[in-house]
Amino acid sequence: MVRIYDERRQYMLARLKDMGFVIHVEPTGAFYVFADARRFCTDSYKEAFRIIEEIKVDVTPGIDFGSEGEDFCVFLTPIP
């Protein structure tokens, strides 16, 4: 299971970076990635719901983690 989780984490990080998201701190044991979305939005709440509706990816607005989380999106890695 550890290997599978690690593969999914690495895949998620690579894809987010390829899309232009900035990852300031790569997670090493979490099931989510806190990604800087300033390149794409100024309202993480609206952007998260746009991603959910249009792209069908699990994401939470960074603002849910406090005012410092604005302009970030929290992507959830798939769990088997």
Question: How would you portray this structure in words?
Answer:
This protein is 38% helix and 16% strand. The chain is built from 2 helices and 3 strands. The chain has a 3-stranded antiparallel beta sheet, with helices on one face. It is globular and about 35 Å long. The termini are close together.
Quick description:
The protein is of the alpha+beta class and 80 residues long.
Architecture blueprint of SSEs:
Layout: H1 2-19, E1 32-36, H2 44-55, E2 59-61, E3 72-76
Content of β-strand: 15-25%
Major β-sheet profile: 3 strands, antiparallel
- The number of distinct helices, counting runs of at least 4 residues, comes to 2
Shape by Cα distribution: globular
- The radius of gyration computed from the alpha-carbon positions, rounded to a whole number of angstroms, is 12 Å
Helix fraction bin: 25-40%
| Element order: H for helix, E for strand | HEHEE
Tell me the strand order in the biggest sheet.
1-3-2
Number of strands: 3
Give the low-confidence spans: none
- Look at the structure and give the mean pLDDT: 89
First CA to last CA: what distance? 9 Å
